[in-house]
TrEMBL record:
GO molecular function, one term: ADP binding
Signal peptide: none
Protein name, entry field: Transcriptional regulator
Repeat recorded as keyword: yes
Gene Ontology biological process terms from the UniProt entry: defense response to virus
Keywords of the record: Repeat, TPR repeat
Domain of life, source organism: Bacteria
Domain AAA+ ATPase per the UniProt entry, residue ranges: 194-344
Gene Ontology, cellular component aspect: cytosol
Length: 840
């Protein structure tokens, strides 16, 4: 029996480990609507079942039932059993393992040795597959121990390497940060404390986002304004991650993508959620072992509930700043014993006077009208008493004060009159903003109102072209309207990588959206222009000169960075177009981004491809429907291993083509490709005779190079299956040579299978060259490329007899599959290779 010498610390350390299991797919409880406890099992019940104890026993171990219920001793087998489950399933490291054992009477070896940890874990007693209780398998323990000590080596190596300072902070919202010295100092002190979470709460316009942003910049080594005068210094973070929920709310997928992207693990693009939550948490844990991470979630109160749950299970080393209109103390009280809350109120009198003075001078610098300048200069001379009344009328709210100054400077209303009117507006901030925005709205000309209304279309701040296009404004009208919005303190320009974007406070966007909902005719026109703009955007950044086809012209072969940067807005257009009354925009979008979606999100390609195919059918656009069913859907469904669904769509597409004129190149080509794709499907289903019979029909048919390329690839796959590696190489090389006629394709499977064929012919240098060509850009390779690359390299390393490196490369492929699309068809092959390597 293990005696617990420090029960409190034992419970806290074990609780951290147990809670980290909560997000693991094996323990995640998926509740249906109106269901509070599915099947009567919680994640603790599942852990308890594996240990052969009750869930209340585990609750007592982790202190959940109170300090007096923490036991004085625990059976060694049960203790090491729960430690084994945690170490196998989570990212908990060797330091955690040692600290926990130090709270017991179990002897601890420091520094830890692999042989000692192995001996400890062999004492674990958990439920086996044969329903008996016993120790884990030796190979399972060896795998965990290797990971634990590999992390230590990585940590030691990284300690001596200078890590680059990284953050994704938006441009500062203000030219000078004024006031909030007490609040800023409180946050600085929190940063230096062990408390993991700081909540900044307050009414809209109080400056929650601004203060969080200024604190983040100070932690990035760039304090400014009043943050410079606070304290003696700021702690430095090597990784600062900014996530904004803003007025739109924040999806869990976007949240995870942002974190993963900033840590250099995956792209900031929507992918399958499945097991990504666990992969991202592991990435955070791995990074924060060496360097602390600062995570800021702006407007957390509008985010999905899964994000709140994720935050309560963050690893040690991650500090979190949350901003919220709601006070979320009750929500997080049980999760965090120590949480700092900063309640922002109106600016203090002296700070408010400084802010008023700064805003007035800012207007003077940007005003070109002599008449307006005269009005603004008069504001400098108003008495302190009137200024104080204005501060009281706006409750010291910075946003309300800025709007008030904008209103006074642009109208004939005297300051005292505005103060009087503000007093009549009511006492709630909602009424105050409604009053100020309402009067500002009336002063805006029609073009400015148009811009204001369509601001809600965008998922990320728009640039000039996209915003002007949605509003239907030419360059001159746009700049006049933007200047008016800036004058009225409605927007803030932000320059990112040389491009100008326009941010609007969530209250501004919400007010514009309210007017848009009352102007349905304008909304229909604006959304149509918005959709057309992004169709043109895709043509500009995706369309190739060759091949010249309505569908194949958008094959990948260009730098995708411009598409990735604008993807959140493109996705929002895609979502709208699928729900719009007329779905022509959806058809145009899917025609252009089907191939792009193959790299970033197969479920999205399938979901929207099916909608586009159905609507093309309604519009009698039969050729496009056939493209969608055969290639967009058929190909993607094969990739996610839904062979029955793929066959259904391919057959439907071929049936459509039977009634179309085969003299049309696209129709003729598509018939051949549909048959070749059926052959590829049968190869996947291990129906070789059917696959060969179809290929025999199409292999000598004269088609355009783009279809010849695809038929040759399927023929190569057949040779690979029969282990005719030399012939497979000839076919793959011929396919790639043919594609050069129309500019070349970045066909992942072509280079992957070519590399595999070279591996089996012991031509390792050529194999490596083929695998390298899978990566379009090595510095910005996306997940699907990396999956095939690491899987290919694992086969090469295994063939060379380097089992350790082969296993490491193959595990990278498996982890990427888990976070990208677990149902991808290649998964089974990768897992089989893993078993083969482990057996060796």
């Amino acid at each position: 029996m293990a005696e617990l010498e420090d029960q409190k610390n034992f419970a806290e350390l074990l609780s951290a480990g147990v809670k980290s299991l909560k997000l693991h797919p094996d323990y995640k409880i998926r509740r249906k609507k109106n269901e509070t406890n599915p099947s009567g099992q919680s994640y603790l019940d599942k852990i308890a079942y594996q240990l052969g104890v009750s869930s209340n026993t585990i609750k007592s171990w982790i202190g959940q039932m109170g300090a007096k219920y923490i036991p004085g001793r625990i059976d060694d087998g049960k203790l090491f059993g729960i430690l084994w489950i945690i170490l196998e399933k989570t990212d908990m490291n060797i330091q955690w393992f040692i600290k926990l054992l130090e709270t017991t009477t179990i002897p601890v070896i420091k520094p830890a040795l692999p042989v000692w940890v192995t001996s400890c874990l062999k004492k674990a007693k958990t439920l086996r597959n044969d329903e008996s209780f016993g120790a884990p398998l030796d190979e399972e323990i060896e795998k965990v121990v290797t990971r634990l000590f590999h992390d230590i080596q990585d940590s030691d190596t990284n300690t001596y390497q200078e890590q680059p300072l990284t953050h994704n902070l938006p441009t500062r919202w203000t030219g000078n940060f004024i006031g909030r010295r007490f609040d800023v100092e409180a946050i600085r002190q929190w940063l230096l404390s062990p408390s993991p979470v700081c909540l900044i709460t307050g009414w809209a316009g109080m400056g929650k986002t601004t203060i969080a942003l200024e604190v983040a910049y100070a932690c990035a080594g760039d304090p400014y304004g009043d943050t410079v005068r606070v304290g003696v210094g700021w702690p430095t973070f090597k990784s600062i991650i900014w996530v904004s929920a803003d007025w739109k709310g924040l999806s869990f997928s976007d949240f995870l993508n942002t974190i993963a992207y900033q840590l250099g693990r995956v792209e900031q693009i929507d992918k399958s959620i499945n097991e990504k939550r666990f992969v991202v948490r592991n990435a955070l844990a791995h990074y924060s072992r060496n360097e602390p991470v600062l995570l800021i979630v702006d407007s957390i109160d509008t985010a999905e509930s899964a994000i709140h749950e994720f935050i309560t299970n963050l690893p040690q080393g991650v500090k979190v700043i949350l901003t919220s209109r709601e006070n979320l103390n009750l929500r997080y009280r049980d999760a965090f014993r120590e949480m700092v809350t900063t309640q922002l109120k109106g600016l203090e009198k002296e700070e408010a006077l400084d802010f008023l003075s700064y805003e007035i001078h800012r207007y003077l610098q940007t005003c070109n009208s002599p008449m307006k300048r005269e009005k603004i200069e008069q504001l400098l001379t108003i008495s302190p008493e009137i200024k104080h009344q204005l501060i009281l009328a706006t409750a010291g709210n910075p946003k309300a004060m800025a709007l008030s100054i904008a209103y006074i400077s642009d109208d004939d209303i005297p300051a005292q009159q505005l103060i009087h009117d503000l007093g009549k507006a009511g006492y709630s901030l909602l009424e105050l903003f409604d009053f100020l925005f309402g009067r500002t709205w009336k002063r805006c000309d029609e073009n400015t109102q148009r811009l204001w209304q369509v601001l809600c279309f965008f998922s990320k701040p728009p640039d000039e072209e996209s915003w002007a296009a949605a509003a239907g404004l030419d360059v001159r009208k746009f700049h006049y309207a933007v200047e008016q919005m800036r004058t009225y303190a409605l927007i803030q320009p932000e320059r990112v990588e040389g491009n100008l974007y326009y941010l609007g406070h969530q209250t501004v966007v919400a007010y514009g959206e309210q007017h848009l909902s009352e102007n349905q005719d304008f909304e229909k026109e604006a959304r149509f222009r918005w959709g057309k703009y992004y169709i043109h955007y895709l043509e500009t950044h995706l369309k190739r000169e060759q091949p010249n086809s309505v569908y194949w012209s958008y094959l990948l072969g260009r730098d995708l960075e411009q598409i990735k940067k604008e993807w959140p807005n493109i996705l929002k257009v895609l979502e709208w177009s699928s729900q719009a009354e007329k779905k022509e925009i959806l058809i145009e979008l899917i025609t252009r981004i089907s191939h792009f979606l193959s790299r970033i999100n197969l479920p999205l390609r399938i979901e929207y491809g099916l909608k586009a195919a159905d609507y093309a059918n309604q519009l009698e656009r039969k050729t496009l429907e056939a493209f969608f069913r055969i290639d967009t859907l058929g190909w993607a469904l094969i990739e996610v291993n839904d062979l029955d669904g793929a066959l259904q769509q391919i057959e439907a597409g071929l049936q459509i083509l039977e009634h179309l004129n085969s003299d049309h190149t696209d129709v003729y080509d598509l018939k051949v490709w549909g048959l070749a794709l059926k052959s590829r499907l049968f190869l996947k289903a291990n129906k070789r005779e059917k696959a060969e019979a179809i290929l025999e029909k199409v292999k000598d048919v004269q088609t355009t190079p783009i279809i010849q390329h695809r038929v040759l690839l399927v023929r190569g796959d057949l040779c690979l299956l029969y282990r005719n590696f030399e012939e497979a190489i000839q076919l793959y090389e011929a396919a790639n040579e043919i594609s050069s006629i129309y500019g070349g394709e970045k066909t992942i499977e072509a280079y992957f299978h070519l590399g595999v064929a070279y591996v089996n012919c012991d031509e390792f240098e050529k194999a490596i060259a083929a695998f390298d060509r899978i990566l379009y850009d090595k510095n910005k390779a996306n997940q699907i490329e990396l999956i095939y690359f690491h899987y290919g390299m694992a086969q090469l390393l295994l063939h060379k007899g380097d089992y350790t490196k082969a296993l490491k490369s193959n595990l990278k492929a498996i982890n990427l599959i888990d976070s990208w699309e677990p149902t991808i068809s290649i998964r089974k092959e990768v897992e089989q290779l893993n078993k083969l390597i482990e057996n060796n």
